[in-house]
Design a protein that fits this description.
Elements lengths: L3 E7 L4 E5 L3 E12 L2 E2 L5 E2 L2 E10 H10 L5 E14 L5 E14 L3 H21 L12
Parallel strand pairs: 6-8
Antiparallel strand pairs: 1-3, 1-7, 2-3, 3-6, 4-5, 7-8
């Protein structure tokens, strides 16, 4: 069985494109964090954050395009996919992706709506000034 379940935060704005016959495909980066703890001897183990490449197809990709933004909390259910390719210099690269079968948005609707308003305000400011109001880091929190 190949099954993955993740709850995490979107690290950057999702990338959505349309391939053959108008099929939508979305890619996003999801951060999951295991909380740190203290060992019985007093040693502190810090939080650990892992980043996951998530791919969503068809209707899920269309939903991502409309409603999912950087910082949103998502539940992703899917399967692991591995691929290998050689770049133009002949170097071999391997990629691990989670191909999503199901997604649930966990960010409260009021927070999502305020992020949408903030995003549109930043776009308006950027258009007027030529400068972005977005922070330059890609942290999900």
């Amino acid at each position: 069985m190949n099954k993955v379940m993740l709850i995490g935060n979107v690290g950057r704005e999702p990338e959505v494109r349309y391939v053959d016959q108008g099929v939508a495909v979305a890619r996003l980066s999801l951060a999951t964090t295991e909380r740190g703890y203290t060992l019985p001897n007093g040693t502190k183990v810090p939080d650990r954050t892992d980043w996951h490449n998530v791919v969503l197809w068809r209707r899920l990709a269309e939903i991502v395009e409309k409603y999912v933004h950087k910082g949103d909390k998502l539940y992703i259910e899917g399967r692991l996919r591995y691929s290998v390719y050689d770049d133009k210099h002949g170097k071999r690269h391997s990629i691990t992706e989670v191909w999503a079968d199901n997604m649930e948005m966990l960010t409260p609707k009021t927070l999502q709506m305020s992020q949408d308003v903030e995003s549109s305000e930043n776009t308006a400011v950027q258009s007027a000034t030529g400068k972005s109001m977005e922070p330059e880091n890609d942290l999900p929190f």
